[in-house]
Amino acid sequence: MIFHIAICSPDGVLRSRLEHQCMEFFARREDACIVEQLQSPEALLQQDAAGLRYELYLIELAAVARPEGLTAAAELRRRGRRAPLAFVARTPAHAYSAYRVDAMQYLLQPVHQPEVSALLKRAVEPEYGPTLTVTTADGVRALTYAEIEYLECTHHIVHFHLTTGEDVASLSLRVPFSAVAQPLLADGRFVQPHRSYVVNLEAVLHLRAATFCLMIYSSLCRGFLRRACFWGLRRGFLREGSGWTEASFRRDIASSKAPCRLSEGTPLSEKANRNL
To answer: What secondary structure does DSSP assign to the chain, as a single string?
Structure first.
């Protein structure tokens, strides 16, 4: 699939920076993107009238009372364009108006790569991607499945570890952890290798014999990754074709009876091939 992105801003430096960040995200994927830079909201509407369609609109909002970018976005919605739409601004003054035109995101400058990557991860999924609603101490959060690397339940609180490195903690659970995990497990990308963990298989780089490498940032490092958790991951990866035999797996896993202690502070992506 080729993902078409329109970047609309009078600032050529900003347009080029956003294009580079989009290209950086898609360089790690099997699909690709085409970015078109447009200097004004008027040019964007002209492209739309000419029949050009985009999978994502990135529009800068000027620091004025009624930015032309907002007017153009409202017109796109009036024309029936339902593609994801995000705004880039120097002030949060127009955030409320932005969400009234169903904006996916409102980014404050300077915009960094993790923010653009998180936006694109959500945008590339059909219909913005499925989300999980989480009640936190700061209010309700809608987390897309794509941005969840894994979740763990400790002392009746679920910690959602995200691709950005953020740890979103729920309020104390009034339902079993299995009820929280159920919609994720139904998605197919997630497995429950242990009663307290659910892992996104798309965050696992590889898993074979008694070693594994996770492409995830944060903290299985707060505790131990128990052997039971590893067995569960192994079961999930069998459907991907791991190359294990039962004999070699049992021999390798039996050689290490202690759980693997993961140290604090370093992304797990740098802890490749940890022996369990």
So the answer is: -EEEEEEE-S-HHHHHHHHHHHHHHHTTSSSEEEEEEESSHHHHHHHHHTT---SEEEEEE-SSSS-HHHHHHHHHHHTT--S-EEEEESSGGGHHHHHHTT-SEEEESSP-HHHHHHHHHHHTSGGG--EEEEEETTEEEEEEGGGEEEEEEETTEEEEEETTS-EEEPPPPSS-HHHHHHHHHTTSSEEEEETTEEEEGGGEEEEETTEEEE---S-GGGSEE-HHHHHHHHHHHHTT-----HHHHHHHHHT--SPEEPPSSS-GGGSTTEE-
